[in-house]
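Format notes (please read before filing issues)

Several people have asked whether sequences and C-alpha cells are stored in separate files. They are not. Every record keeps both together, in the order shown below: the sequence lines, then the C-alpha cell lines. Line labels are part of the format and must not be stripped during preprocessing.
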Amino acid sequence: MRVRSAVVRVTAAVLAAGCLTACAEGTPAAGPGRAASAGADSASATAGRTASSATVPGASTASARTDKGGGLPSAAGGQTSDSSGSSAPSDHNDRSSAAGGHPCSPSVSLDRYSDALDKTTFQGTFVGNLSALARDTDGSLAALSDRSVLIGLDGRSHRPARTTKITDEKGAVLDAEGLAVEPGGRYLVSSETEPSVRRYDRSGALLGRLPLPEALQVAPAGRAQSNQTFEGLTLAPGSGTLTAAMEGQLTGDGKDSAGRPLLRFQTWQRQGSGTRPAPYRLSRQYAYPVDAGLGVSEIAALTDGRLLVLERGFTAGVGNTVRLYLADPRRASDVSGIGALPGGKAVRPARKKLLADLGACPSLGAPAHQPQTNPLLDNIEGMAITGRAPGGRLRVLLVSDDNESPKQITRLYSLTVRPGGR
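Then the structure lines:
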C-alpha cells in the first residue's frame, strides 16, 4: 500500500505539473470555449447592437436586476464553512500567465482570472453580489456587495478579511453600486435606488449624505429611470473630485451625432481636509456618449483627470458585452444647466477611446454557466486601479456580480492597461 500510494503521489504530481504549465501558458480548453473565444469579436458586436432589456426605459427594478446579470437570482450558495465560520476560497480556478499577460488589444492584456471567491462565505456572510471595488488606505481592497455589505479583501491574495454592514438613515439596506475610499479611510457609497451618495466611517457608521441635483432623482421626483442611476463612483487621486456615473439616460435626453445615447456624469468637489469630514459641494456635470445597447457599470479616475469607463450590456441567449474605454472629460461642457441633451452644437461631451472589447480576450479555459460569446465574460460591475507597471501601464482589477445565481460567477480579472497619451 505504501509503494502504491507513493506511485500514485508521484503520478499525480507529474500530472499536476503538466496542468500548471498549461495553465501558466494560458492554453484555452479544447471544444466550445476555444470556438467561442475565436468568434468573440463578431458576436460581441452583435450583442452590442442588440439592446439589453436592462437598458429598456421603464424596466422594473426586479427585471432590470435580473437582465443586467443575465440569470435568475437564487438562494445564496457557499462552500462548507471551516471552524472559523468562513469558507476560504481555494486557488484551483486561478489561471495566470507566466509570460506577463495575454493580449486582448494593443492597450489591454489579461494577466489572470480567478473564480476562487465564487459561492463562498466569510464568517456567515455571502461573498458575492459584488458591484464595486476600490483600493483601501491600508493596502487591502474594499469590495461592495449590492446587498449593503462592505467586504475587505487581502491586497495580494484577494481572500476575504472582514465584513461591515451599512444602512441608510432609517437602518434599511441599500442597493449599493458604487464605492470610493477617501485618503482618511472613510467610505463613499452610491445607491441607485434614490439615487444617493452616502459617507461612512470605518465601522460602517453613517456620517452624512451628499447633495444631489433634482433632475438626477428617480421619477417622479426627477427624470432618472429606476435602476438606471449611480452605478459607478470614483474619487480622483489628490484632487478631491468625486464623480458618479449614471448607468442610463435621463428621460428627455437624446443622442450625439453618432447615434450614441448621452449619459450624465455628476461631480462634487471636496473642500478642506483633516480629521473632520469636509463637505462635498456640487460641481460640474458633463455628458458621456455610451455605446448603443450598453450602460456604464463602473468608472475609475486617473491622476490626470481622465477616467477608465466600463460599459456593459446583456442579451438573452447571447451573453454579456463588456468594453473598456478611456474617457477624457477635461474639455467637456458643463451640462448641469441644460434641460435636454445634446443641447446644441456648442455643447462638448466627454471624448472616449476604446481600449478593449473584453470579448476579444483569450478565454484561458474559463467556464461559463450560461451562453456567452466568450466564456470568460460574466456580469462585470466593479473596477479598481490597484497599482502601476513600467511604461505608464496600470494594474486593474475587475469583478463580476453573480446575483447569487447558479448561472453566474463571482470572477476576478487582473488586467494590465496602457491608457496612452495625455
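For reference, the curators noted about this record: The chain has a mean pLDDT of 82. Helices lie at 2-24, 32-38, 40-49, 61-69.
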